[in-house]
What we know:
This protein is α+β, with helices and mostly antiparallel strands. Helix content is 33%, strand content 34%. The chain has an 8-stranded antiparallel beta sheet with strand order 1-2-8-7-6-5-4-3. Helix 4 crosses helix 5. The longest helix has 20 residues. It starts with 5 loop residues before the first helix and ends with a helix.
Amino acid sequence: xxxxxxxxxxxxxxxxxxxxxxxxxxxxxxxxxxxxxxxxxxxxxxxxxxxxxxxxxxxxxxxxxxxxxxxxxxxxxxxxxxxxxxxxxxxxxxxxxxxxxxxxxxxxxxxxxxxxxxxxxxxxxxxxxxxxxxxxxxxxxxxxxxxxxxxxxxxxxxxxxxxxxxxxxxxxxxxxxxx
Length: 179
């Protein structure tokens, strides 16, 4: 299926679990979905310097536990991250910080699931704004682009504007649980 097409995007949106949870003063935006690719293929795409810019961002720094990274995600400023934990092929826990904002955490987990894999991504933040709206849809946009790349397609064909119009109501509905 062409995940950059209208039909492929609709199928993606239906098959993705979205949740916003409140944990004390913090909120967690959580994505979970099954991929038709092995967890090793997904891990490679998430850690290979040639593949990362094709679906996510340019990255500088060492891709190893304890290292500090800079991500150019196309925002006005680069994101700074520190790898807190790395369990190859299974888990990556890192900080996520824009200049002048609190430091968030990203917990990216992979698990084998039949012939494919389940990806679970949590973005944890103490930010009091509706940050989860952009974080949730931003991560979902990136993971859809990853799917297109792994399917042999061109991730640049996925329209951020088109996808944002569809993701907005889904992430607002997910956030109602937090009030």
